[in-house]
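Late entry, adenosine-3'-5'-diphosphate complex.
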Amino acid sequence: MALGAPIFPRSSMRDIQQFDGGFPSFSQPQEVGCFSLSRRDDQRRQYHDDARALKPLVRRGPGPVVTHLNINLDQGMDVFIDHKQEYKMTEHLEFLLQWIAHHPTEFNKLRSKIQMVCWRGKLHELLTTPYDRQNGWILCVCKIDGILYMSSFENRNHESRRLSETKKDRTFMYWGFKFEQYMTNQPDDEKEFRKPVDNFESFQTVLFSRLKNTGILYGAEMDCYDPEVGTEKAPDRYVELKTARNIENNRQYQNFCNHKLMKFWAQSFIAGVPLIVVGFRNDYGRVSSTEEIPTQSISRRVRENGQPWLPNICANFLADFLLFVRQIAVEEYDKAIYRFEWNPGAEKIACTVEAPDSAWKFIPDWYMEARPK
Ligand code: A3P
Ligand code: MG
Ligand code: MG
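Prediction complete; structure with ligand written out below:
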């Protein structure tokens, strides 16, 4: 059943200036827990209620820019088998829910402040929506004991990209994971680097923050921590690792600021991760330099480059959309699942109410039994 108008936003999504107000209030995210994931024999992932997968950043030299490196991201690519697609489609909030089920005391302490539970990736995707011209999304929301749970489903664009994935796409993906492996092991550990990457293994932080009256409990994968930073506090000590193509001319720099830096900023800002280490590579997967980019320096850098995107437009859109979701999604999980859909170029975000036992169901039955009461 489609809900009658009005739908979000009041004016058109094409008018992103409507979000160009003051930056909404956003509390520094705080780590309330963590867990690790590893590979299981059946090519699914295994939950561990500890930080075993958290690794330190291993710098290749002093200072924010390190040059004259020769890191080969292609190593092990020939024997790499990617099973990620297989589990990605079915996991939804599974492991975040497992964390909640393992930590009823922590969850109940926060319960009255939490309005929403989701992965960081959904918040990141929503933040960049005002500038998204090619992806779009489908987000489903259901309410359990007064708290909204949000997860995503594959839309047409995602599906066609998955079905038409080329060897080149797979290579870029492999290079990203390989860079993580290089930056979290000693540089002379040749035995480790000969192995293909294991993209099943990951460390996840569980964060709480408040964006303009919406308290959010969210899980986020963290690439590593900085052993040189003078704090044990999280997420302050976490570091995001990224790869990008070498920048050789102005046009490429513009492109880097317009697109890559927006994604880097959105992903790390929303999780309170202060530092991004970028490995610059050539077309053959050789990284010759790394650069440390503080997350908070990105908006200045972009301002100096013609301001192709604005952080406050991103943040106001996200804050307002979450408030809208809270207004719409009033029924509990046994009555309705709310499906929000947006396609690039569309004027509005559509909302449809689905049946609780439909194909849009994403909360596993075990959670309904095991959730903290
Ligand atoms: P890069 O970020 O260097 O591209 P993350 O950066 O979020 O920690 O993810 C690690 C790597 O996973 C990425 O490295 C990329 O290789 C791969 N990856 C993440 N999201 C992806 C996506 N939507 N499509 C393809 N690869 C992706
Ligand atoms: Mg990561
Ligand atoms: Mg990364």
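Residues 221, 223 surround magnesium ion (ligand 2) (CB under 6 Å). Will revisit in the morning.
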